[in-house]
């Protein structure tokens, strides 16, 4: 029952019956239907003997649909010809009881060399046997049985195999893994999966291990668990006895003696490095830069290249190589500099999982250099990009690695820490000196370092000027906020491996008005950190959390505050130096002479956080973020309406905003954003004419529902009801389903005295039904309550309340309609009370109640409510207007007139709105 020796055909598939040790699978009896599995047989059998691995597969798949038929009509089988043979045993089509030999008539697989990973800079040397299976129909079963026989000379007689295992909910008709080995070839084996029954059975001189597929459903794991918890189910076999055995086996491949010949180009480079001034550290950094910058990455897996590195002379001549080639080149250079160095094998994605695996080379997919300088380990990766002297002590997140030594070595852990320099370093100089409500003017510079910079620099050659500028704008939009830009620029510095972005622009004001004061956050990076491990399930309680690989970001803000910063203060924790949730956090905040300085840095450290520490770390981060500093404005803030448009336009901040918008518009005349953004700014400072003109230009370039509705409202505010209605209709033409467009058209029809037409539009939407029906019913009631029969409006709202008792907004509607229409005031008191109490102090409900008090002549009560609303929402024009009216009723004419001026400044149409209800100054 030994392995039959194949003919080692190399680059030509063999066509032979399966050897006698294979036990063929029997086709299962499965009913055809929607619930039937597509894969009827998945049988994998392995045999290890005399340093050789025979891998057999039997796959039977039903063409249950046209899509599956397309997939099965063309088969592909990859294999490495330098390591063994591909052997085809059977290719047949099963149609009912008929078995059709798809290899009859001397039909053969065609062999192709398809470097499918070339775009990922990998040349594998893998050959692909491909065949178009003729005559397959929907309902047929295609069965393929084949073997791959392999022996890798780089493993020095050792054999290894890793098989991924399907688990429920994946479905199979019949599935199995079967492994055999002779006494003299017994491998170690391991099932890295839960709830699998597998016991080896010895029959004569052969041991057999069998288990069924698919496996039972594997336990779900939190997404942030380390890879040793989240790895896919695996079956491993290896003839390596220990990690030291693996280390010793790989060692000869990385011997460097004699690899740099005297007088060779590499010898010239080595001599140059030796002659450099500086320490061993300086020379090690220079050697690493030489390898990173002068040898591009290209994985070469052909001709034994899976494990055998390319010679340094070839790597230097070709100027390309993979991690093996770059490591061997770097090793040769470092050892030539008398710097202690050794290769280490690493797993790039599952390093913390390595100790649980069987010792084998297959546990790794990467190799780098460990250099020892002054007794300290440095992890030097030739495939990295942009590493300089300052970065040489940075630590990769590879978990456990295996040093490659002639005497053998055990696994070694890499303890990660924060990187020396930030990968992204941002400086922002912002001018907000005019007023909190004006757009923020900024000059920004971002220095990108290391691998990020190198990748961007590599892509710049493929970008035209427009795409390059879009890249820069997109970067700053992410870091600062959506903005309009006057200028953007880029500069590269190969010596420092940096790329610098610069920009000048304007963005939306970050100030918020809360509790009668303007407030602004000063934290950019720390507040953005998210750490929320989910360990709610009992089975997850003991699972630690993995954190991000080491990377640093720095943000420096220099901000000119409004009004020279007089009486402004900082609230919160200004100075911070703490390690929390896998991050090192640093921050300083200073306010001096009207200028705010913020320096903030976050560094992911790549550490793993133990399960029992997770609650404390979450709490610590929440505490840090809750204490993030904010700038607090003066007790008596000013508002834009306190100044006329000409005064605001004269401020340096406003002039800068105008200049930036002008350049942004000129730079891209086909983009409407510049005009619409400038229009918002101008409208906000009271320049209504030019604000509307900009909106006209934006719509001329790129008409949209949002722009039409925006212009409709602004036209209405300036008294142009006909223009507002026209814009509403244009918006509805673009999107007849837009609720905003329907409401706009109906509102302005009613405002034009065409209430019946407005109601007809809304009734048509109500008749359609669906989720929006209740909203349209409520809108109809408000139309009637404002322009028509208030009694009918109240009937609609009461009917809605009967259907959905306790709906706060409906009580508010009752309160408002009764108050504005001056009807049924006694019952309105209960409605207003319900609205205020159920809404937990909603400003809308309090404003409505103020209207009721006004109608009842209770002006002091009305003023009390309006004071509350205006204090919380000072830009609410209706409340401002009514406050002015109430003040005048109380005899405070000058105060009332001042309030009315503010209301008209915020909304020029507000007097006409209230005149409809008979309320005038």
From TrEMBL:
Native source organism of the sequence: Sphingobium soli
Record key words, sorted: Repeat, TPR repeat
Superkingdom as given in the UniProt entry: Bacteria
Name this protein carries in UniProt: DUF3857 domain-containing protein
InterPro entries: DUF3857, Papain-like_cys_pep_sf, TPR-like_helical_dom_sf, Ycf3
Methyltransferase keyword on record: no
Domain DUF3857: 69-212
Listed Pfam families: DUF3857
């Amino acid at each position: 029952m030994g392995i039959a020796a194949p003919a080692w055909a190399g680059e030509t598939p063999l066509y032979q019956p399966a050897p006698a040790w294979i036990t063929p699978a029997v086709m299962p009896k499965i009913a055809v239907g929607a619930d039937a599995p597509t894969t009827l047989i998945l049988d994998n059998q392995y045999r290890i003997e005399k340093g050789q691995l025979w891998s057999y597969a039997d796959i039977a798949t039903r063409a249950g649909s046209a899509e599956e038929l397309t997939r099965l009509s063309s088969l592909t089988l990859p294999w490495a010809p330098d390591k063994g043979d591909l052997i085809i045993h059977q290719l047949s089509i099963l149609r009912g009881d008929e078995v059709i030999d798809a290899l009859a008539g001397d039909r053969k697989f065609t062999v192709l060399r398809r470097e499918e990973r070339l775009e990922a800079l990998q040349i594998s040397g893998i050959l692909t046997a491909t065949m178009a299976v003729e005559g397959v129909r929907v309902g047929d079963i295609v069965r393929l049985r084949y073997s791959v026989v392999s022996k890798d000379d780089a493993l020095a007689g050792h054999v290894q195999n890793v098989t991924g295992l399907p688990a429920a909910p994946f479905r199979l008709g019949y599935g199995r893994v079967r492994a055999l080995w002779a006494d003299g070839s017994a491998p170690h084996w391991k099932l890295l999966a839960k709830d699998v029954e597998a016991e080896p059975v010895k029959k004569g001189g052969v041991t057999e291990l069998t288990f069924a597929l698919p496996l039972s459903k594997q336990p779900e794991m939190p997404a942030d668990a380390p890879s040793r918890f989240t790895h896919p189910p695996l079956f491993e076999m290896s003839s390596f006895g220990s990690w030291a055995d693996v280390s010793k086996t790989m060692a000869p491949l990385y011997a460097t003696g004699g690899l740099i010949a005297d007088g060779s180009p590499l010898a010239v480079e080595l001599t140059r490095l030796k002659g450099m001034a500086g320490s061993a550290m300086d020379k090690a950094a220079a050697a690493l830069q030489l390898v990173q910058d002068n040898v591009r990455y290209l994985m070469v897996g052909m001709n034994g290249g899976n494990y055998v590195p390319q010679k340094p002379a070839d790597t230097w001549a070709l100027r390309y190589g993979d991690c093996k080639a770059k490591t061997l080149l770097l090793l040769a250079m470092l050892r030539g500099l008398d710097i202690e160095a050794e290769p280490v094998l690493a797993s790039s994605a599952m390093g913390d999982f390595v100790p649980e695996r069987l010792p084998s080379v297959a546990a790794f997919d990467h190799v780098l250099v460990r250099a020892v300088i002054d007794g300290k380990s440095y992890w030097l990766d030739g495939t990295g990009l942009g590493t300089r002297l300052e970065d040489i002590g940075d630590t990769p997140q590879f978990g456990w690695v295996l040093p490659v030594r002639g005497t053998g070595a055990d696994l070694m852990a890499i303890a990660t820490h924060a990187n020396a320099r930030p990968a992204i370093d941002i400086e922002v100089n912002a001018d907000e000196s005019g007023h909190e409500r004006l757009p923020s003017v900024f000059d920004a510079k971002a220095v990108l370092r290391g691998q990020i910079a190198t990748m961007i620099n590599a892509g710049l050659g493929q970008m035209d000027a427009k795409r390059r500028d879009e890249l820069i704008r997109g970067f700053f939009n992410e870091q600062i906020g959506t903005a309009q830009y006057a200028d953007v620029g880029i500069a590269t510095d190969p010596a420092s491996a940096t790329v610098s972005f610069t920009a000048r622009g304007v963005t939306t004001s970050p100030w918020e008005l809360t509790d009668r004061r303007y407030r602004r956050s000063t934290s950019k990076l720390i507040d953005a950190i998210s750490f929320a491990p989910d360990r709610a399930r009992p089975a997850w309680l003991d699972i630690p959390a993995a954190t991000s690989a080491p990377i640093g970001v720095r943000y420096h803000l220099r901000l000119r505050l409004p009004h020279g910063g007089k009486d402004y203060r900082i609230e919160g924790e200004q100075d911070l130096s703490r390690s929390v949730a896998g991050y090192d956090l640093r921050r300083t905040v200073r306010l001096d002479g009207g200028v705010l300085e913020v320096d903030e840095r976050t560094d992911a450290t790549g550490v793993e956080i133990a399960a029992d520490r997770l609650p404390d770390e979450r709490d610590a981060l929440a505490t840090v973020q809750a204490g993030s500093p904010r700038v607090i404005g003066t007790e008596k803030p000013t508002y834009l309406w306190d100044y006329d448009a000409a005064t605001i336009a004269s401020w340096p901040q406003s002039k800068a905003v105008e200049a930036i918008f002008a350049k942004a518009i000129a730079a891209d005349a086909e983009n409407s954003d510049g005009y619409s953004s400038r229009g918002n700014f101008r409208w906000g400072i009271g320049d209504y004419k030019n604000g509307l003109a900009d909106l006209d230009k934006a719509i001329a370039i790129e008409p949209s529902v949002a722009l039409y509705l925006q212009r409709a409202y602004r036209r209405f505010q300036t008294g142009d009801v006909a223009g507002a209605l026209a814009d509403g209709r244009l918006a509805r033409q673009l999107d007849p389903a837009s609720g905003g467009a329907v409401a706009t058209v109906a509102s302005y029809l009613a405002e034009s005295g065409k209430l019946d037409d407005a109601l007809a539009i809304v009734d048509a939407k109500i008749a359609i039904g669906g989720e929006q029906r209740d909203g349209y019913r409520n809108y109809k009631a408000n139309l009637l309550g404002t322009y028509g029969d208030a009694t009918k409006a109240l009937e609609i709202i009461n009917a809605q309340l009967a259907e959905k008792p306790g709906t706060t907004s409906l009580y508010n509607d009752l309160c408002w309609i009764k108050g504005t229409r001056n009807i049924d005031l006694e019952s309105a008191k209960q409605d207003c009370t319900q609205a205020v109490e159920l809404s937990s102090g909603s400003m809308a409900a309090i404003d409505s109640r103020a209207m009721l008090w006004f109608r009842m002549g209770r002006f002091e009560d009305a003023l009390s409510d309006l004071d509350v609303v205006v204090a919380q929402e000072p830009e609410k024009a209706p409340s401002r207007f009514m406050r002015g009216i109430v003040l005048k009723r109380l005899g405070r004419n000058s105060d009332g007139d001042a309030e009315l001026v503010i209301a008209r400044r915020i909304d020029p149409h507000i007097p006409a709105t209230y005149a409809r209800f008979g309320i005038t100054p």
